[in-house]
Design goal:
This protein is α+β, with helices and mostly antiparallel strands. It has a three-stranded antiparallel beta sheet, covered by helices on one side.
Amino acid sequence: MLSPLEATPLRLRCDVAGSIMRGMNTASKLLAAMRRNSLDWQIAQLQTIAKQHGIGWRHDGGSHCVFVRADGKTLPVPSRRPIKPIYVKKFVDLVDGA
């Protein structure tokens, strides 16, 4: 006779664990990490978060990437790497709607 653990299909156990992990996408994980540590971020990571949150940006090859929220609020961020922590903090505030 099989024990209750052995009788439970492996697929079911993986699906339950997988659904917990699927609740957070890459942009959400990046934003959470950005809130914890504002050092060593790149413009492409900010653009990933902006795309997920419906924030537009323009970066026409200049020295700055300008993020534009739907209400018209803008945030220019210098494109050099790594981005200074003050710009990361301001970006998180822009995403949060502050």
